[in-house]
Amino acid sequence: MRRRRGSSSGEVSVLLGGASNIEGKLNFKGQARLDGVFKGEIVGEGTLIVGPGANVEARILATAVEISGVVVGDIEATERIELRAPGKLVGNIVAPLVVMDEGVVFEGNCRMAGDGGDSSPKVRLIAGDNK
User: Fold this and answer.
1) Omega of the bond leading into 86 within 30 degrees of 0 (cis)
2) 12 neighbors 28 (Cβ within 8 angstroms)
3) What family does the entry list (predicted)?
4) Are strands 55-67 and 37-50 parallel, antiparallel or unpaired?
């Protein structure tokens, strides 16, 4: 599997498999991957990966968030948010860097908030197979 730029390296510390269905609050450090159904709140120091088969309804606060599945809820990331095809996000996002592939669905508002060190937030829209 080719690692995308921006994906954090290291082991997955939390894995919610495709047949799982959980409601509540998830706190994590490192990398968390969701491939099942989750409803509630997610707070993490590290990268949250929402896999293509995942269905998440949550408020999310993390260092970085990568979405290929379905997310309904607001997201705030201190470093970056990546929306990967065939992902769908219904909610507002706040991050200094936002990456969106062609083919994603995004319904909401985007606020590019710098971390105080860099006053020029960046957005990068990726078209086609350019990854």
Assistant:
1) yes
2) no
3) Belongs to the bactofilin family.
4) parallel
Mapping DSSP onto H, E and C, the string for 27-96 reads: EEEEEEEECCEEEEEEEEEEEEEECCCCEEEEEEEEEEEEECCEEECCEEEEEEEEECCCCEEECCEEEC
What is the residue type of 118? D
Answer positive or negative: Cα dihedral of 123, 96, 11, 86.
Answer: negative
- pLDDT tens-digit readout, 85-114: 999 999 999 999 999 999 999 999 999 866
Token pair in block for residue 91: 């909610």
pLDDT digits (tens, 9 = 90+) for 54-90: 999 999 999 999 999 999 999 999 999 999 999 999 9
Give the number of other Cβ atoms within 10 Å of residue 109's Cβ. Answer: 10
